Amino acid sequence: MTLKISKLIFLALLFTLVFGLFSVEIKDPDFWWHLKTGEYIYQSGSLPVTDPFAYTSLQKDPLNPESKRIAFILNQYWLAQVVFYQIYHFFGFEGIIFLRASLLALLIFLIFRGIRREGFGIYSSVMLLVPAVMIFRTFTGERPQLFSFLFAFLLIFLLEGFRKASGSRGRGFEDSSGKLQDSRIQGIKDSSEQQKSVIAGSEATKQSFKCITK
Predict the structure, then answer these.
(1) Is 161 found in the same domain as 136?
(2) Are residues 153 and 112 in the same domain?
(3) By CB neighbour count within 10 A (0-12 exposed, 13-18 middle, 19+ buried), where does 14 fall?
(4) Do 130 and 152 belong together in one domain?
């Protein structure tokens, strides 16, 4: 019991540290464009056709008019941009920092659970987390990809758990089928032995009856 409590305290302190490592100042230069675009979408109620904050923005690529690249860039992030704007509107930049740290800490926790599910111990799993923490802390800013990273790994985590659970059920079904088959074979053998005993008893009775009647 004491060991279990010690491990829980260790993990609580660990993920508090991870949360703190991700709670740094806003540094991604693209965040400001995402924030302002979220405000534009929220206030106008529509997605931008051209970049409203760049006078050089065009609706179509002049080198390839058939390309959907510009429209894709302008429209693919809209939900995350609105979320950024709403959090900033109510909680300021501290809310953005808290959101980023929470999403990344939750992602690290899911990675930890995935490693543990593969059979690694707590301390070896923590050691394997170090590269992930360093990479996300260094290269991940306040971008819509935060949600993509989290939900992509969450999907993988759930599918892997489902695969393992299905495999266990499959093995259990095979074991049950095998035991049932064995019991049927044993039942047939027992039935055959009983039939032989009945036939032998019947023949002995006939012989005894013949001896009496002579």
Answers:
(1) no
(2) no
(3) middle
(4) no
Query: Do residues 126 and 172 both lie within one domain?
Result: no
Q: What is the dihedral of CA 137, 138, 142, 145, to 10 degrees?
A: -90
Domain that holds residue 27: 2-142
CA–centroid distance for 54 within its chain: 39
178 vs 195: CA distance, rounded Å: 26
pTM comes to 0.73
Residue with tokens 């049932």: 180
Q: Strand, coil or helix: what is 64? A: strand
- For 143-200, the pLDDT digits (tens) are 999 999 999 999 999 999 898 888 766 555 455 555 555 655 555 555 555 555 544 5
Does 109 lie in the same domain as 36?
A: yes
Residues 133 and 148 in one domain: no
Q: 91-120, pLDDT tens digit by residue?
A: 999 999 999 999 999 999 999 999 999 999
Alpha carbon 173 to chain centroid, angstroms: 26
What's the CA gap between 122 and 115, in Å, rounded?
A: 9
Q: How far apart are CA 183 and CA 169, in angstroms?
A: 21
**Where is the domain boundary, 118, 142, 166?**
142
Q: Tell whether 31 and 135 lie within a shared domain.
A: yes
Number of domains observed in the structure of the chain: 2
User: In 178-194, which positions are buried (b, 16+ CB within 10 angstroms) versus exposed (e)?
Assistant: eeeeeeeeeeeeeeeee
- Burial-class residue 165 by CB neighbours within 10 Å (0-12, 13-18, 19+): exposed
